[in-house]
Amino acid sequence: VQLVESGGGSVQAGGSLTLSCAADGFTVISTCMAWFRQASGKEREGVAAIASYGSAGYARSVKGRFTISKDRTKNTLYLQMTNLRSEDTAMYYCAADRALGDECQGWAGFGYWGQGTQVTVSS
User: Fold this and answer.
1) DSSP states of the chain as a string?
2) Which pLDDT belongs to residue 52?
3) Rounded to an integer, what distance in angstroms lies between the CA atom of residue 42 and that of residue 32?
């Protein structure tokens, strides 16, 4: 199992970015997947998760601004981020369910991780 994130960068507040997570070794469309982030000096937190059937959930801080999605043909997970704020600055990680299951088991249920991609939002 391999997860490789890309798409991070620097953007001004109010701007947008789309993160990608290319998967290898399993099928994204049939697996519960998520995006997490970790800001400097803070604990890692769940941002968005999506089950195999497409049902998605979001952290309160990003709801209405971020959208998680999957691409079957590219076997890739995405996170579209709009109206970015300085508090969104963090390293962003994609993750897959530890059992590669189709149902999400909560934020503690993820066991496969990418290396991360940095998002920096300047105000």
Assistant:
1) -EEEEE--EEEETT--EEEEEEEESS-GGGS-EEEEEE-TTS--EEEEEE-TTS-EEE-TTTTTTEEEEEETTTTEEEEEE-S--GGG-EEEEEEEETT--SS---GGGEEEE---EEEEEE-
2) 87
3) 25
- Which of 35, 27, 41 shows the shortest CA–CA distance to 100? 27
Say yes or no to pLDDT of 18 above 90: yes
Question: Rounded CA gap, 50 and 41, in Å?
Answer: 27
Question: Which residues, 6 or more positions from 37, have their beta carbon under 8 angstroms from its beta carbon?
Answer: 44, 45, 47, 88, 90, 91, 92, 93, 119
Strand partners, 108: none
| CB-based contact 99:62 (threshold 8 Å) | no
Phi, psi of 29 (to 5 degrees): -65, -25
Of residues 89, 90, 108, 87, the one with CA closest to residue 99 = 108
Provide the β-strand partners of residue 41. Answer: none
For residue 53, pLDDT beyond 90? no
